[in-house]
Design brief:
Elements lengths: L10 E7 L9 H17 L8 E7 L7 H10 L5 E4 L3 H11 L5 E3 L12 E3 L4 H15 L4 E7 L2 H16 L3 E8 L7 H9 L4 E5 L2 H13 L7 E4 L4 H7 L7 E5 L8 H14 L8 H19 L24 E4 L2 E3 L3 E6 L2 E7 L1
Parallel strand pairs: 1-2, 1-3, 3-4, 4-5, 6-7, 6-8, 8-9, 9-10
Antiparallel strand pairs: 10-13, 11-12, 13-14
Helix pairs in contact: 1-10, 2-3, 4-5, 7-8
Length: about 350
């Protein structure tokens, strides 16, 4: 691994983000945030003294040629690293194709447990998001009968399996689960299941547009009067699509919200809006993650080359890097970041507490 890091004067980075499909609405903010990071890096010393350049690869779940595209780029020596902001299903496809060939920074929240050599998963994990959020809701809202709904792939399946234990610890019970394909628009069966199981809380692990469609249907059915909702992946873009009328008692747990009133986030938002203007894509956890991923990669590669330019083993030691959510890398693949719980208020999130 890393042989190409020593050659070209420019560092080429494949930015893998969904440009269509259920997760396609993550694309604009992810692209913009990554571009801002590149501008900042190139304005300073670049990465190891080299300017960096992005090559965008469509990483939608229904994109058929992700593997072939990356294999060709890696074998030709045309890319030096990968930044991935996409579902875990796509991450697994990329790893089967080019895992271990070049550094791969995977940026969004995910189920946890990624240990492939050369892969750095810097997003929040299910355990750190759901366990404290379910405990907090259990103490204050006292839901007893949870129902879990997610897309049919690894992240929802693993998350719901873990959540069953967290719900039991909080005095509740997971009374049912349902998994749907990407692109589902009709959630009548899911709503019927919620009524049948007499759920008073819903754990949502739906992606992008699917989350919007479900929550619109949920709101129209008037179920928010009887059930709260908790998600770890409904960002600000999805919330806008859901609409204020359909977002009552909708909670979100993650490490970043655009509304975070921290010095790091205020400064990040100022730089973002100064660069892209007031019509910039809406900031959210998915977009911010690519910004952080580029700065993480730069710190990783700067740390990973010795004085003679020869590569060291990457990722062993703690390191600092620029992050809008005050994340820190402790070495050995361990990321620490604050986790927050927020509640939808109109078309925005209000952070309730740090968990």
């Amino acid at each position: 691994m890393q042989a190409s890091l020593l050659g070209r004067q420019e560092l080429n980075i494949a930015l893998c983000v969904p440009l269509g499909g259920s997760a396609g609405l993550w694309g604009p903010s992810a692209l913009a945030s990554a571009k801002l990071a590149v501008v900042e890096l190139n304005r300073e010393a670049g990465v190891g003294g080299r300017a960096c350049r992005l090559l965008t690869v469509n990483a939608a779940d229904d994109a058929p040629d992700i593997e072939a595209t990356l294999i060709e780029l890696v074998q030709a020596g045309d890319i030096d690293a990968i930044i991935g902001m996409h579902t875990s299903a796509v991450r697994q496809r990329i790893l089967r194709a080019v895992g271990g060939e070049i550094p791969f920074v995977y940026t969004p929240l995910y189920e946890g447990g990624e240990s492939t050599p050369g892969v750095f998963a810097i997003g929040e994990t299910t355990a750190r998001q759901l366990q404290p959020a379910i405990r907090w809701l259990g103490q204050r809202k006292r839901p007893r009968r949870w129902f879990a709904i997610g897309n049919d792939y690894v992240w929802p399946h693993v998350s719901h399996r873990m959540a069953r234990g967290y719900i039991a610890e909080a005095g509740g019970e997971l009374v049912g689960e349902m998994y749907v394909p990407f692109g589902t628009t009709d959630f009548a069966e899911a709503l019927d299941a919620l009524r049948l199981k007499r759920a008073d809380a819903v754990l949502l692990s739906l992606v992008g547009q699917d989350a919007i469609e479900f929550n619109r249907a949920f709101g129209r059915a008037g179920l928010s009067r009887a059930m709260l909702r908790l998600s770890s992946a409904i960002g600000e873009n999805e919330l806008l699509g859901i609409g204020a009328d359909n977002a009552e008692d909708l909670f979100m747990t993650c490490g970043y919200f655009a509304s975070l009133d921290t010095e790091a986030n205020i400064a990040f938002k100022e730089r973002y809006r100064a660069h892209f203007g007031e019509r910039a894509p809406t900031l959210n956890t998915f977009g911010q993650s690519t910004y952080e991923g580029l700065h993480f990669l730069a710190a990783l590669l700067d740390r990973g080359l010795d004085a003679d330019g020869a590569p060291r083993r990457l990722g062993e030691a703690p390191m600092a890097y620029r992050s809008a959510r005050n994340a820190a890398y402790e070495g050995g693949g361990v990321i620490r970041t604050p986790i927050y719980l927020a509640r939808a208020e109109g078309n925005a999130y209000r952070v309730i507490t740090q968990l």
